[in-house]
């Protein structure tokens, strides 16, 4: 339409076009209003997203989605601005629970923004908003600080194992948990997700279900494979799909067992409490040892890292197979492994 036409002429032209299309101005206004009211509120949309994501994502973001509902529950998801998200992030930073390993609320802010980005990614996919209208994408996350975790020296690791085996209400369980993490370098979630069906006792392998819904077979020593099988036989019964690690009464362990274990270790070993040592330190310990003795490729495979985004493109061609991982485990434990490419170093 020619913008130089008088206003009344442009109005007449638009009116004629609407008449030709069989529409009225009132219908256009109703359509626009209906489009706006079809955008869900946070109270309506967050439960839908929660039901659509995996358990790991739900566990990581649930606290922050609940904070969003507390603040904006009755608002439409397209209403908050990047500035409002920053304001919410600062409120969470100020009210975060102060722990010994706290880092000024940076992690809480990172998780909040990640939770909102996850929410809005689903909204974009559902065509409720466009990518250009995604407010969380325009809010920068605080830069992640280097981790304070590190490998535990051998004498200190021996102290942990000694205390775990001589204190507590179920030292057999605690020693089994520690050995499982030292041998496999698995994450806590991987150990909790392990089922009896994931244990291949003949080939000394354990199937791990871990972060990012990854699944991998990890070599374990014959001693650990036997111990896990016996543990489940004594405490788990005949349920092949049941969780592998259990209390004496047969109930599967939860994250609380890990909390109890490290709190107890901290009472007997002050340095554990002071440095906030956790299960993930065992992963650092094992992977550091493997990298020093067998190189980066084997350590990467041992850790179950599949992405090459954190390193040079050369890593696409530098891959270790399960036989090499089994060889590293054999050297670590001093036990032969059926898949090991070579005998353990003396």
TrEMBL record:
Gene3D superfamilies: 1.10.150.130, Intergrase catalytic core (1.10.443.10). Keywords: DNA recombination, DNA-binding. PROSITE patterns: CB, TYR_RECOMBINASE. The keyword Transcription does not apply. Coiled coil: none annotated. PANTHER family: PHAGE INTEGRASE-RELATED (PTHR30349). This is Integrase. The lineage of its organism: Bacteria, Bacillati, Actinomycetota, Actinomycetes, Micromonosporales.
């Amino acid at each position: 339409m020619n913008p130089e036409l008088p206003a009344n002429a442009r109005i007449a032209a638009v009116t004629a076009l609407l008449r030709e299309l069989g529409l009225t101005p009132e219908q256009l206004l109703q359509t626009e209003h209906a489009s706006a009211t079809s955008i869900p509120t946070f109270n309506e949309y967050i439960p839908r997203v929660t039901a659509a994501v995996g358990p790991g994502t739900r566990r990581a973001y649930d606290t922050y989605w609940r904070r969003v509902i507390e603040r904006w529950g009755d608002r439409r998801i397209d209403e908050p601005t990047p500035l409002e998200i920053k304001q919410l992030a600062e409120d969470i930073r100020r009210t975060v629970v102060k722990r010994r390993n706290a880092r000024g609320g940076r992690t809480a802010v990172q998780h909040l923004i990640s939770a909102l980005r996850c929410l809005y990614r689903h909204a974009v996919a559902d065509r409720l908003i466009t990518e250009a209208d995604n407010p969380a994408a325009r809010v920068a996350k605080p830069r992640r600080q280097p981790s304070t975790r590190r490998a535990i020296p051998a004498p200190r690791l021996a102290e942990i194992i000694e205390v775990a085996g001589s204190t507590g209400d179920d030292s057999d369980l605690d020693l089994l948990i520690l050995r499982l993490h030292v041998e496999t370098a698995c994450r806590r979630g991987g150990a909790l997700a392990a089922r009896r069906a994931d244990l291949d006792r003949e080939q000394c392998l354990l199937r791990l279900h871990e972060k990012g819904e990854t699944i991998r077979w990890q070599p374990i020593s014959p001693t650990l494979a036997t111990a896990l099988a016996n543990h489940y036989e004594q405490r788990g019964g005949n349920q092949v799909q049941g969780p592998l690690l259990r209390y004496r009464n047969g109930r599967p362990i939860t994250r609380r067992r890990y909390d109890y274990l490290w709190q107890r270790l901290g009472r007997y070993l002050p340095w554990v409490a002071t440095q906030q040592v956790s299960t993930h330190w065992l992963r650092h310990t094992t992977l550091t040892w493997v990298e020093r003795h067998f190189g980066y490729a084997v350590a990467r495979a041992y850790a179950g890292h599949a992405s090459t985004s954190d390193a040079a493109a050369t890593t696409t061609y530098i891959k270790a197979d399960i036989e090499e991982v089994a060889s590293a485990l054999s050297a670590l434990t001093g036990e032969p492994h059926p898949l090991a490419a070579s005998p353990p170093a003396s």
